[in-house]
Design a protein that fits this description.
Elements (H helix, E strand, L loop, with lengths): L2 H29 L4 E2 L5 E7 L4 E7 L10 E8 L7 E7 L9 E5 L6 E10 L5 E10 L4 E3 L2 E2 L8 E8 L8 E10 L5 E7 L3 E12 L2 E6 L4 E3 L4 E4 L4 E8 L8 E8 L3 E8 L34 H7 L7
The structure holds copper (II) ion.
């Protein structure tokens, strides 16, 4: 008999063995909370955002590599009988916008006290790993598997100082500036922005290219380290509105949807205000702000013939 035949014959028995180990591991984890790892080799780490009511489940294999192809679900039960469980249905890794081994599930502890969190990981080979992890919830803190969750109740992503430049032309471009303060314990990424007032919205950075200021399209967006700040300001990083449905005048307010890699979507309002200065060198001040700058050749911009645009939006301003 060839080795491959043995492999085929052995796999059901092996599968059963793995399942038994997974169950045994679950019991062990329940009895003695600690870094979650059982004989399946799967490493499961829970990170809870109390403010965001989100549980992030990090999966890694025995070697520490991110596991991105599983489906993860979660059930929380209080340590005493009679309480209704809190459940989060299965999600895939990329459901939160990035396949990074971190699965994002909506979850809120409905009461203070001791909880058992049951994480179920359905793997691509059809097997499932279930793990019970202890959590203690007080009004002050959340502790999961013995680890105090670093995020305080107030620790969240804050978007401040939002403002848009006036823009004179329908079909033209506009610029929006803002600041993001990452009060959470993990790195974030401002991955994308959209708005009903523009055909396309891109994240740009104005750079000095041998004395000529140019705008560079950043398709990956901008990072905001844990505890750090991202500033979009004149002459630097900015949100670029392309193909405006209508001119933007001082006093207008536009709506933007920011998409973060982990926190998901955040809808914000940007007032249109006069914005002083572009942060550029004086010799380029004549062609002014980010909204009117030359774009780097090859950067992905959406050409928008002004006449098409006017017809398309004759019936309304889009505001
Ligand atoms: Cu730009």
């Amino acid at each position: 008999m060839k080795p491959t035949d043995w492999g085929a014959r052995l796999s059901p028995a092996l599968l059963l063995f793995v399942l038994i180990l997974a169950v045994a591991g679950g019991v062990a984890a329940c009895a003695a909370p600690g870094p979650a790892a059982d004989d399946s080799g799967l490493q499961i780490t829970l990170l809870y955002s109390r403010g965001g009511e989100i549980m992030r489940v990090r999966l890694a294999d025995a070697a520490g590599a991110a596991v991105t192809d599983a489906v993860v679900s979660l059930e929380g039960n209080m340590n005493h009988a009679g309480m209704v469980p809190v459940a989060a249905e299965g999600v895939t890794d990329d459901a939160d916008g990035s396949a990074d081994g971190q699965y994002t599930l909506p979850f809120a502890f409905s009461m203070l006290g001791d909880w058992i969190l049951t994480v179920t990981v359905e793997q691509t080979d059809g097997t499932a790993v279930k793990r019970d992890i202890d959590a203690q919830v007080t009004s002050e803190s959340v502790t999961i598997a013995g680890t105090l969750q670093a995020e305080t109740p107030g620790g969240e992503l804050q978007v401040t100082d939002v403002r848009a430049r006036p823009a004179p032309l329908a079909g033209g471009t506009g610029a929006v500036y803002l600041t993001v303060v990452n009060g959470t314990a993990e790195d974030e990424q401002l991955a994308a922005v959209s708005s009903p007032v523009a055909e396309a919205v891109e994240l740009h950075e104005t750079v000095d290219d041998n004395g000529v200021m140019r705008m560079r399209h950043e398709p990956e967006g901008f990072a905001i380290p844990a505890g750090g700040t991202l500033q979009l300001a004149p002459g630097g990083k900015h949100v670029m509105l392309i193909g405006l449905a209508a001119p933007l005048a001082v006093g207008d307010t536009i709506t933007l949807t920011l998409t973060f890699a982990h926190a998901g979507e955040k809808v914000i309002q940007a007032p249109v205000v006069e914005i002083e200065g572009s942060g550029q060198s004086p010799m380029h001040a004549s062609d002014g702000d980010d909204a009117h700058m030359e774009h780097q050749p090859g950067a992905s911009m959406t050409p928008t013939p002004a006449e098409e645009h006017d017809q398309e939006h004759d019936h309304g301003t889009g505001n």
